[in-house]
Design a protein that fits this description.
8 strands; alpha/beta; TIM Barrel; eight-stranded mixed beta sheet; 303 residues
């Protein structure tokens, strides 16, 4: 098969990458609320393939600290550009959205802010505390690496999120191409410190496949995550968000995803989500429910 034929084949999604789109009306209440409260979601900014499904269920993953990133990874649709100062009212507005949506579990992530001395850690902490003041909702944070600043990480952990998530994204061999500005060893160190200093907080990470990694590299990455104290892992198919981003090297089959899941459980992970449409925050409450037995029904506001 010629290279041109291979490129055409990769643009044609396999049958397991087809999703049913819910009726447009089911999404609008979340869209309106996000717009009204002037919030960003990673669902929209990163062009997540699960956006319609999650919005239709009345949930979203909130992205704090602006909608532009200081790094600009080659796989990510979040734009790189100048960033303004953190908005001091943003934590309150996120908490307002969580309360109005009646969420029982929420994921809060952010762009990477290498321009801030603390990498945005204080904004994460303020957001966790604001949510806790308004709701009994469990809170998961998906943070950047804070440039390896342990003080920033400790500041986030001091607010005691229920889940601490930091993604390694890909195997170390591909970092220079996929995650320029990031460092595999530094990301593992972030996860290890979270696991060691706050063992009561569930530690989680995730990565993509289909970027050119080998099976052996994936298995080694999983072993590295377990050695770093990770209890939960997510594995999903990379999908090219625009023509200017990295192309898909191949589509990983559901059978391969199932094999990775089995291998991860054999290594001792307590929760594994592995599949073509899996993303870090997709059905995120399942990990907490499985590991801790906390059932995530509708949240009750704090009285």
């Amino acid at each position: 098969m010629s290279s041109a034929d291979q490129a055409r084949e990769l643009r044609r999604f396999p049958p397991w990458l087809k999703k049913r789109i819910p009726p447009p009306g089911a999404l609008e209440s979340v869209r309106r609320l996000v717009a009204e409260l002037r919030l960003a979601t990673v669902c929209q900014s990163a062009r997540c393939p699960n956006l319609c499904e999650c919005f239709a269920k009345g949930t979203a993953t909130f992205m704090i600290l602006g909608d532009c990133c200081t790094r600009g990874c080659a796989f990510c649709a979040v734009p790189r550009g100048p960033c303004g100062p953190p908005d001091p009212d943003e934590p309150r507005r996120v908490a307002e959205a969580v309360a109005r949506l009646g969420l029982s579990h929420v994921v809060v992530t952010s762009v990477t802010r290498d321009d801030l001395p603390d990498g945005g850690a204080e904004q994460f902490r303020d957001t966790i505390l604001a949510i806790r003041a308004r709701s009994r909702c469990t809170v998961e944070v998906l943070t950047p690496d804070f440039g390896g600043n342990s003080g920033s990480l400790d500041r986030v952990l001091s607010a005691r999120p229920d889940v601490f998530n930091h993604n390694v994204e890909t195997v170390p061999r591909l970092y220079a191409r996929v995650r320029p500005g990031a460092d595999y060893t530094r990301s593992l160190a972030v996860l290890a410190r979270a696991s060691e200093t706050a063992p009561e907080i569930l530690t989680k990470s995730g990565f993509m496949v289909g970027l050119g990694e080998s099976r052996a590299e994936v298995l080694q990455l999983l072993r590295d995550l377990r050695d770093a104290g990770c209890a939960c892992v997510t594995i999903g198919q990379y999908l090219q968000p625009t023509a200017s981003h990295l192309p898909v090297a191949r589509f990983v089959t559901p059978e391969e995803f199932a094999e990775y899941e089995r291998s991860a459980y054999c290594m001792g992970f307590r929760h594994v989500a592995s599949g073509p449409f899996v993303r870090s925050s997709y059905n995120a409450a399942a990990a907490l429910t499985q590991v801790s037995g906390v059932a995530c029904g509708r949240a009750q506001p704090r009285g």
